[in-house]
Structures are given as C-alpha cells and as structure tokens.
Design a protein that fits this description.
It is a single chain. The protein is of the alpha/beta class and 129 residues long. It is 43% helix and 31% strand. It has a single domain, classed as 2-Layer Sandwich (Transcription Regulator spoIIAA). It has 4 helices and 5 strands. The chain has a 5-stranded mixed β-sheet, with helices on both faces. α1 runs parallel beside α2 and α2 packs across α3. It is globular. It starts with a strand and ends with a helix.
Length: 129
C-alpha cells in the first residue's frame, strides 16, 4: 500500500491518497506512527482518498484498531474538525461503514463520499458560515 499526504491551506487540511492493496497491519502501523510524528492540532479537516485502492486485506480487529487510534486523536483536535473518506466502490463502502461503527462518538465528525467534490463541499460548509 502506498500513502501520500498532501498538506493544504498552510496546515489547515491534509489529504491522504491511498493506493494499491490496503493491508490492515500496515494501515494500523502507519496510523500509529503518523499520529506520533505529525502535529495534527492545527488541522480543520482531513480527507482520506481510497479511490485508488485495488484490494482490501483487513480483519475486523484491524479495522477496530485503526478506528480506535483515529478516534483518540480526533478528540484532541479543533471542535470543528471534519474528516471525509472518499471511496469508489461498494466493498470499500462496507469496510468504511464498519470502521464508522467503531467511531460512534458525537465528538468525531466524519462522512463517507463517492466524490471528492462532494467531500470538499461538505468540508467547506462550516468555513463559509
């Protein structure tokens, strides 16, 4: 799996572009490592772009672990922080729905989209007000 991160708007946002085979072990390790080395306090939004993922190899335990790591870090961010997940197929939608079950927390504001334009429009909603 390859993951590229693109920082936007002087650190206000970041887009993670995932491609290849998504391995649960690798994703969990990278998530843990990333949150230990990258200062996410300034972030208002994150976009996780999974449209280029060819295959998913994750157990439900690995999905739960990445969700737990994400949720713990999300609670340390700005109150208006949003994260969008962009996918291109139904199997990925099913994985993200399961991941969302583990993120069942009112302090975490996230949505799944089939389009980058829709994700960006949702993220922009609060900043336009």
């Amino acid at each position: 799996m390859s993951v590229d991160g693109v920082i936007e708007r002087d650190g206000e946002g970041i887009v993670y572009i995932h491609s290849g085979t998504m391995s649960g072990e690798e994703l969990t390790d990278r998530t843990r490592e990333h949150y230990q080395t990258f200062d996410t306090e300034k972030l208002r939004y994150q976009i996780m772009d999974f449209r280029a993922v060819d295959r998913i190899e994750m157990s439900s335990k690995q999905i739960e672990e990445t969700a737990r790591l994400f949720c713990a870090k999300a609670k340390t961010r700005r109150p208006n922080h949003k994260f969008a997940i962009v996918i291109s197929n139904d199997p990925m939608f099913a994985i993200m729905k399961l991941w969302g079950i583990y993120l069942d927390d009112p302090e975490v504001h996230g949505k799944v989209f089939y389009s980058m334009d829709e994700a960006r429009a949702w993220i922009a909603e609060d900043s336009e007000k």
